[in-house]
């Protein structure tokens, strides 16, 4: 076999059985490439978790087709061991063939408790390494070492110098390489055993990206001070500025290290400092980490960011995680350009954006459906977020969780307000990522998916409004063992006294789960006449007013695990004409129109070349969106608007942030 997927795909030949029941305790069936291949063969995958929800989809979408004598290839996935397939309803067991797949069968020589912690995207490399390096069965530590070496390219026993250690940590954390905790602990164990780094805070900076960047951030001024002739930093002053133990001076100027350093400053992972006494050449790599009096700092950073993003543009074959990593860089660049006044930069951004979103639209048409059923460990889509929170609550037992949904906040707008939040509260840690919104990127679709923890397919009666949001939120948590009295929900937030709002909405000693909707950004957007630049300016002013920061601080102070996301982003676009269709469209937005039948949608689509007939992926069967592509809109020709509902990167990939307090 050339891939671990072949062992599974061999059992999936179209038209063999209309129903297949699969025990999949390790979430192999929903791995992105495997799910894509199964869809390409005509198989539909649905997960059996809630019996009532499953019965609704099964009866309405599949049983009715079979009753008409038509064939489908349906796969029902149960994330339990094969012995528990018998817990499925009797009528399914009578009709369906039964299969079972697990990691132990695919990797028989490796320790199961170790490999089951791996991201499924890494199984390709692991399978190839196992095939090329046959061996006897390995124990836990030997399996960890095997994976570190062959999957992540890390040989801990060979890391013996500060340069080698720093280079490894930069490669991991800058590259967003997420070592499972079980592997990072093993790496720390081996490094400590060698005795080469006795003062380094390895337990903190190896597994934790934020701790690592804080560690090198506080050593950057020390490094610059050493560049001043005759300057010596006293040990006492070092104790005052260094919160993390370890060497005070790091080899930032080593050729293997400095290739990372300027990018870290350019991308906003490190913050430049004021150091006027240090003379820096115009072309020096150090310049990115020093705030100068010249007005060219932002322009230099924009120029460098353009170079970075243009070299790392994803393709139509990229993984969803590649798009998320790219979107975070793109957001930094967009925020800088929109907050600036250079017309050439804006023209270049628009040109790159048009090509980027053409590729993204092609990618979505093929890959988007494979994201829906991914495990929620690292939420790939917004409806995975409450499932992740439920896991955190279950694992922590007595903890409390809060979810803030900032309606309409785009990823680049988050990049604009992040430094304001940090400036107001230096103790704030922000663990940043991003996730995919539901398409069409409408509040009634994507925000309801967040609060229900389900695809829109499961709330057809309310898909055009948000009036059932609170009910869906509380139903989700009741399904995870909480009482309605443990769950709070509040919407319409954004102004006024944040503490007063929360005092009336929650009882910190009783309320275990809080869902909050901050809709200020969405209100700003719908009244915006000054494009993306105006959006950034007004959102920045609103954030400086303090409501969002105080809201986050209040929840952290009362012991909540705080997450923030958005239901959709927004984009500046130009009108290309409005369809003349009377009451044909059930939703008539500037970036999306929704029709009750595919035929009605096709009639309108034929007149608008920029529109995409979006397949009803995860949507009710009578819901047919026509979405605007690129920076076009269903609006008066040449009218400039800021809108949402379409399929651009700016609308679809939204921020996902976990807030914490510094312990140092």
Description:
It comes from Nitrosococcus oceani C-27. α3 (51-67) links the parallel β2 and β3. It is built from 28 helices and 19 strands. Among the domains are: 4-106, Rossmann fold; 370-525 and 532-571 and 651-661, Alkaline Phosphatase, subunit A; 574-647, no CATH class. By secondary structure, it is of the alpha/beta class. A six-stranded mixed beta sheet has the order 8-19-11-7-10-9, sandwiched between helices. It is globular, with a radius of gyration of 26 Å. Helices cover 44% and strands 14% of the residues. The two termini are 50 Å apart.
3D shape: globular
What is the CATH superfamily label of the domain at 370-525 and 532-571 and 651-661? Alkaline Phosphatase, subunit A
- Uncertain runs with pLDDT below 50, 5 residues or more? none
Query: Could you say what the CATH architecture of the domain at 370-525 and 532-571 and 651-661 is?
Result: 3-Layer(aba) Sandwich
Q: What structural class results from the helix and strand content? A: alpha/beta
Oligomer: single chain
| Portion in helices | 40-55%
Instruction: Please report the first level of CATH classification, the CATH class of the domain at 370-525 and 532-571 and 651-661.
Output: Alpha Beta
Protein name: Alkaline phosphatase
InterPro entries: Alkaline_phosphatase_core_sf (IPR017850)
């Amino acid at each position: 076999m050339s891939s671990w997927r072949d062992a599974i795909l061999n059992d999936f030949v179209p038209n063999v059985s209309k129903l297949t029941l699969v025990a999949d305790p390790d979430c192999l069936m929903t791995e992105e490439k495997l799910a894509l291949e199964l869809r390409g063969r005509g198989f539909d995958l649905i997960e059996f978790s809630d019996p009532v929800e499953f019965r609704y989809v099964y009866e309405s979408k599949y049983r009715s087709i079979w009753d008409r004598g038509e064939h489908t290839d349906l796969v029902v996935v149960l994330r339990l061991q094969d012995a528990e397939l018998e817990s499925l309803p009797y009528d399914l067991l009578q009709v369906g063939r039964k299969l079972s797949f697990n990691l132990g069968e695919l990797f028989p020589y490796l320790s199961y408790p170790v490999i089951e912690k791996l991201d499924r995207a890494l199984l390709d490399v692991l399978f190839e390494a196992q095939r090329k390096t046959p061996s006897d069965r390995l124990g836990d530590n030997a399996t960890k070492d095997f994976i570190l070496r062959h999957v992540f390219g890390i040989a801990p026993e060979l890391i013996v110098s500060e340069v080698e250690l720093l280079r490894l940590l930069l490669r991991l954390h800058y590259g967003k390489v997420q070592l499972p905790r079980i592997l990072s602990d093993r790496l720390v164990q081996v490094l400590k055993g060698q005795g080469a780094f006795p003062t380094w805070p390895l337990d903190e900076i190896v597994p934790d990206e934020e701790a690592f960047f804080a560690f090198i951030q506080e050593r950057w001024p020390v490094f610059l001070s050493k560049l001043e002739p005759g300057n010596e930093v006293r040990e006492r002053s070092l104790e005052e500025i260094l919160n993390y133990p370890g060497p005070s001076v790091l080899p930032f100027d080593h050729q293997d290290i400095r290739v990372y350093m300027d990018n870290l400053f350019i991308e906003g992972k490190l913050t430049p400092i004021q150091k006027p006494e240090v003379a820096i050449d115009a072309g020096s790599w150090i310049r990115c980490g020093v705030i100068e009096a010249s007005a060219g700092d932002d322009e230099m950073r924009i120029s460098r960011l353009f170079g970075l993003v243009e070299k790392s543009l994803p393709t139509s074959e990229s993984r969803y995680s590649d798009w998320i990593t790219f979107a975070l860089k793109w957001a930094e660049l967009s925020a800088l350009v929109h907050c600036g006044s250079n017309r050439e930069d804006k023209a270049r951004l628009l040109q790159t954006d048009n090509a980027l979103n053409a590729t993204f639209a092609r990618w979505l048409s093929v890959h988007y459906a494979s994201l829906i059923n991914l495990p929620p460990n690292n939420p790939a889509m917004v409806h995975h977020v409450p499932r992740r929170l439920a896991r955190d609550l279950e694992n922590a037992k007595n903890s409390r969780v809060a979810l803030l949904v900032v309606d309409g906040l785009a990823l680049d707008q988050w990049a604009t307000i992040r430094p304001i939040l940090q400036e107001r509260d230096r103790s704030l840690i922000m663990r940043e990522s991003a996730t995919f919104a539901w398409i069409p990127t409408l509040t009634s679709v994507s925000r309801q998916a967040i609060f229900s923890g389900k695809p829109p397919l499961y709330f057809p009666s309310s898909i055009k409004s948000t009036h059932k949001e609170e009910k869906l939120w509380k139903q989700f948590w009741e399904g995870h063992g909480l009482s309605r009295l443990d769950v709070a929900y509040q919407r319409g937030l954004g102004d006024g006294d944040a503490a007063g709002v929360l005092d009336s909405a929650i009882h910190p000693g009783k309320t275990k789960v809080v869902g909050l909707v901050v809709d200020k950004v969405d209100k700003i957007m719908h009244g915006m006449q000054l494009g993306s630049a105006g959006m950034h300016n007004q959102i920045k002013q609103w954030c400086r007013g303090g409501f969002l920061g105080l809201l986050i601080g209040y929840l952290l102070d009362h012991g909540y695990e705080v997450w923030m996301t958005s239901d959709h982003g927004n984009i500046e676009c130009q009108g290309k004409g409005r369809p003349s269709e009377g009451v044909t469209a059930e939703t008539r937005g500037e970036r999306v129109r929704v029709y009750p039948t595919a035929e009605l949608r096709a009639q309108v689509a034929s007149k608008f070349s920029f529109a995409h007939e979006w397949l009803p992926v995860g949507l009710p069967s009578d819901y047919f969106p026509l979405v605007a592509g690129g920076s076009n809109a269903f609006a008066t020709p040449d009218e400039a608007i800021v809108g949402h509902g379409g399929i651009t990167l700016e609308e679809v990939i939204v921020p996902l942030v976990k807030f914490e307090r510094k312990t140092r």
